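On to my pick:
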Amino acid sequence: MLPVFFDLEAKRAIVIGGTAAAAWKAELLAAAGAHVDIFTVTPGEEMLAGAALIVADAATRAEALEIRKAARSAGVPVNIIDRPEFCDFQFGAIVNRSPLVIGISTSGAAPVLAQEIRSRIECIVPPRLAAWVRVAAGLRDKVSQRFSSAHQRRSYWSGFVAKAMNMPDAAGGITIIRAETVEDLTIREVRALQSADVIHVGRGCPKGILDFARREARQITHADYVPEAEDRNVVVIQDTRTSSVTASMMARKPETDQAARPMNRPSISGCAMSARQLSGLTLPP
């Protein structure tokens, strides 16, 4: 399988079938900018000509064969829902941070697995990352004009990406995490972990949870931290078996701390940008 992305803006797409699955695909295509024609029965070949792609929900194998034959005669790629053997292309699970789009496919073999992988990627790709991609689109011509060599351009974009991936979320309120295992973390809790600058670690913190913290975060042994009303961007991890506070993540610097301890593996932080910050992303002199 070759992963590709269709540009469907202002292009014609055809959906065949009157089912809920067909309606969902029509909505997906329309969201991508396509002009969608919906047929409850297979139209004639002349109606298929000129379409960018065809999606169909066939009730029987014979109907699927008929639709595929008509599509190929018209020279249009076709997808038959839940019948991968008749498909010219597959729909994958989608992480949409448009214009950043991530597709996950199992070639139709295990859609539920693709959905689970998507859920995990959703945790580490915050919606605000889309703003960085839009900024990059506006800078591409300027970067090409300013830097003559490929090395210089790559160096600039490497710095841009590092800033986008490592800028923490804006300070927020207090988040209480009561997950018993890393699998129980919610998306909101993962993003709170990723935005912390200081980590107060106590006994009983579930294994694997700190893997989601920022690589640059400072770890401080602190078993009984109690958040105060004025605290911002604070995460408190509780041991649900004893109801005791076992760790907390804080964005503000405490009065005393210990030396920084590196995290075991890097993680991806959210992107928090105001309109002023966006307008300030200019080329270096």
User: Anything to note?
Assistant: Residues 239-285 have pLDDT under 50 and may be disordered. Residues 169 and 272 are 5 Å apart (CA to CA). Residues 9-91 form a domain with the Rossmann fold fold (CATH 3.40.50.720).
